[in-house]
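Incident review: delayed structure delivery

Summary: a single-chain prediction request sat in the queue longer than the usual turnaround. Root cause was a stuck worker, restarted by the on-call engineer. No data loss occurred. The affected request and its eventual output are reproduced below so the record is complete for anyone auditing the incident later.

Affected input:
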Amino acid sequence: MNQDFKNPERSNRIIDEIIEKTEFFKIIFESLKDLIVILDRDLKILYFNSDVLKNNLNYGNKEIVGRNLRTFIYNKDIEKINNIINKTTSNSKHPITEIRLKDLNQNWIWFDLKIIEMQDKKTNILYLFILKNISEMKNAEEKYKNLFESSPNAIILLNFSGIIIDVNLTTIKLFGQKKQDFIYKPIHIFTDLYPSEIKPFFKQIFKAAFKGIFPEPIEAQLKLNNNRLIWVLIQASLVKVRQSVLIQIIYQDITEKKKIQLLEKKFKEQLELEVEERTKKLNHALKEQKLYLDQILRSSQFKTEFMSTMSHELRTPLNAIIGFTELLLEGAYGELHSEQKEVLNDIISSAEHQFDMIKNILDISKIEAGHLKLNKSTFVINNIINQVYSIFKPTIDKKNIQFLLHGLDKQYEILADPIRVKEILLNLVSNAIKFTEKGTIDIRFKEKDKKWMFKIKDTGIGIDQKDFNIIFKEFKRVDSDYVRSKPGTGLGLSLTKRLVNLHGGVLWFKSELGKGTTFTFTIPRN
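Output delivered after worker restart:
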């Protein structure tokens, strides 16, 4: 197809035959994957391969024939086409440009566009537009861009010559410079990013970029514009952006981790000196005291290391695992067969389960430490409940459960933390759906005694009275084959109760084995 349109004389003959409705070339065009459109000088549509048009934009002949193509082009892209046409001759060659066309459902679809100018038998100027659908590629790029910009770590993209192609928002904030200060400049001129002591590491990176095997991450100390020193973990990998393969350098701030390690070292040294001195005086008493102090130290160190590790070392890579696995599933790096997709879906499911468990543990720890603050505002509770219903609707429909709402006959505004209220409802409704195979789930909302009252009632398996005392305990689950068959960590209800209490409310439940469970919680109006 592309070879046919490189020669102007051959192009003219082909377009003449098309105008004369030669069936042979119509068959060829209709068999192509790219969209072929032939237009007159005013961009009035003369011909298109209808099947490809239907597949890409959902239009039929009646919606397209005789209309001006500008009607379907994104406003900002029309100028691109005008510029190309004004410079185009039958012998000219122009690079491919990207434009957006509106489909029948008013969506904008991305295409690569190549324009070829030709003439018919009467020497009238005609244009051949060759359009390749690149929407999937653009969506994948946008998804990567979102991950890139929202990363808590500084990320720099380099070409194989060490030239900076892009930096994310974290890099700009961390180093206090504008994006244009970085772009298209060699990284070695930035002494804050490229101090002399890590130059050997970067040399290894550029050598490894051609083989795809990168050196292990290293720790380094960087000096920022305000003379503040920070510790970072630097690691590198390859990433494909459009048609280019770039080197991705990630700077992860580990300053707090380093501070904790230093404090632990100093504390340990001091403690050992004190223990040694007191042992000389009260040997027996100090043995008991040392055991007690060591237990406190281990507990304190565990909690500190746990919070730091979970927030910095686990959540960040889990985000990357989920994000890049989704990119693989979407075909951003090539088509996958069914077994590969099944494995990748298992990876996402496991990563999301792990992420939820980490999030719940961290929230519980923050609440215990008094660090979790509510962001209260006035919002419409009807909207939150409808959002919860929408999230679980596919599962409800699949299990054929009847979902009932009561007490929402008008719009109710409440004062609370909307994100945490939604989390409370998500946890309770999720449990109800999880342990109900048939029957109904009933959500009731009402005002009672200056409080907002919520009830989530199900007709599920219920809870044995002997298990009532473990329902709100961390990592505790009812010991039954059915419960073990369902995913869960035993943290959801514990976190939910703490979030309700944080609002000044109360959470309780009633249940009977085999007949269902009702969870009720209140939130004060004021």
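Verification: The CA atoms of residues 329 and 345 lie 8 Å apart.
Action items: add queue-age alerting; document worker restart procedure.
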